[in-house]
Design goal:
Belongs to the nitroreductase family. By secondary structure, the protein is an alpha+beta fold. It has helices spanning 5-11, 25-35, 55-64, 69-73, 84-89, 91-94, 101-117, 120-144, 157-163, 193-196; strands at residues 47-52, 76-82, 148-149, 171-179. Helix content is 48%, strand content 12%. Helix 3 packs antiparallel against helix 9. The structure holds flavin mononucleotide. The site of flavin mononucleotide has 12 residues, from loops.
Amino acid sequence: MSMTLREAIETRRSIRKYKQQPIPREDIEEMLRLTGLAPSAWNIQPWRFIVVTNAEKKRELYFAANQHPQVDSALAVVILTSDMEDAILRKGESIHPDLPKEEKQWLKENIPGILGKQTMEQRGRWGVAQTNIALAYLLLAARSMGYDSSPTYGFHPAKVRQLFNLPEYVQIVALIPIGKRAEEGQPHHRHPLERIVRYV
Ligand SMILES: Cc1cc2nc3c(=O)[nH]c(=O)nc-3n(C[C@H](O)[C@H](O)[C@H](O)COP(=O)(O)O)c2cc1C
């Protein structure tokens, strides 16, 4: 199943009850590949994914996530994280090989300098801003492949950190349960354009 971006946007909604059918690994990989095509400043790509399918681990995650029903129901939950320390360490991998030599050199020398001057906390926040773009990509990539999701912020970061051995500097951006819908969810309820747009 594949749909246009417009169809994916129109039909995506937060789903908290899923069919109990496992997601093939290749589908997960394709969703994450598409997600990784999200843009980021300096192409830094700080997003890192943990895919939780193990029933025991997922049960523990459910309790660390305020017992949100979507975490219990989905057979796969993606923990979307941002790791700026790893991103800086691997900056060489994110610099496009086709850029002019001087630009590549500039990026190589300046990315660690500019980001290195910030505190780990500031860098962390900067990484989360980039990773939120990937979050939107993941929701729409899943939908375009016929899957549903429910981004979830309600979790205890310290507990999730401990469960998956995540160091303090890794930011946990969201939990994203994924599967095929076993409920319809709610139709979109959004501000009308005239409430939020100003043409000048
Ligand atoms: C970043 C993010 C975090 C969210 N966290 C939660 C959450 O913790 N629990 C929950 O039930 N829904 C959560 N939601 C779902 C929102 O309530 C939902 O997206 C919003 O009401 C719009 O509904 P729709 O997604 O069906 O269009 C979250 C959504 C986003 C984008």
